[in-house]
Predict the structure.
Amino acid sequence: MIKQFNRYSLLSHNTFGIEATANQFVEFSSVDDIVGFLGEGYDGRSFVIGGGSNLLFVNDYNGTILHSAIMGMQVVEEDDNYLLLRVGSGVNWDALVAYTVEQGWGGLENLSAIPGEVGASAVQNVGAYGVEAGELIAKVETVRLSDALCQEFLHDDCCFSYRHSIFKAAEKGKHIITHVTYRLSKNPTFKLTYGNLSEKVGLLGGATLANVRKAVCEIREAKLPSPDRIGSAGSFFMNPIVPAEVAEALVKEYPAMPQYPLTCGNVKLSAGWLIEQCGWKETPHEHVGVYKHQALVVINRGGATGRDVLDFASAVVASVKEKFGVELNMEVNVIG
Ligand code: EPU
């Protein structure tokens, strides 16, 4: 089924709670629908959205917003140890994680309670608590917007890295993702080394899929605002990655600065810490600020426009650059 709307409000399609309108909004519930729509020769400006949890609309959108409502989860292959689960791109991300945990299939449990939909997990390579979705993704199926061709990208084709994939690089804006296939384990091993996750899981009675999910949900609830109550897009910035010499000089000047050495010799810094040190938890703008428990999350304090958020973000970037000489890059997609 295809649903088409004109002059459509995007308020319920962005977790920032920004009021913006699209000329046209088109929602598909099958691959055939998408292929049919694109095959009729649609050649206007278009943008594909998922759950709207990583977007900032700065203007009304003068074009067509495409949204996949393709549902369903199906085991397409399995052996004694692993299975391949093919999931529709419109499935709610946390519903997928909850289902895999209930089934006893390991891999996604550390990624519990992340807002958004399955399609975006492959674009953003969503990550949390030591796991990135890309590690589990075996295949991404898409329809190419230019000619309605159905394509498949295997794991290596996707070029996953920190919050990045080919769908944010060479293939950016060229596809609508229809299905993502995850490789999950029937004999789960647990990744509990991030922060206090291991301790939390211990308090819940030890490492099981359900306990890891519960612990992650509790940690996120304490640190991150719920989109139902406070408008935000989760982490607004990416954690900056700097050469080891830069990190060394910074930690000499700021001994408390958290640093995470990467295998390539570079060092990841904590954007939340850098932003907090610049005083932004205490000095919000009228409509926009950072979240009290996690400065990496920019929040809509009520009535913010996309432009207000962008102005605030620019001020944050400038302050971090001035104090630490470090450049912050946005994780959020700015549209309009
Ligand atoms: N910190 C501060 N002040 C703050 C925030 C953080 O000092 O306001 C410090 C913390 O004390 C800690 C360090 O910074 O020492 C790292 O903080 P945290 O563990 O909260 O993780 P993060 O690096 O800030 C990243 C992801 C989150 C993900 C967490 C846990 C990015 C951009 N963000 O945040 O992802 O949940 O790790 O894995 O990589 C998201 O993408 O929307 C998101 C929430």
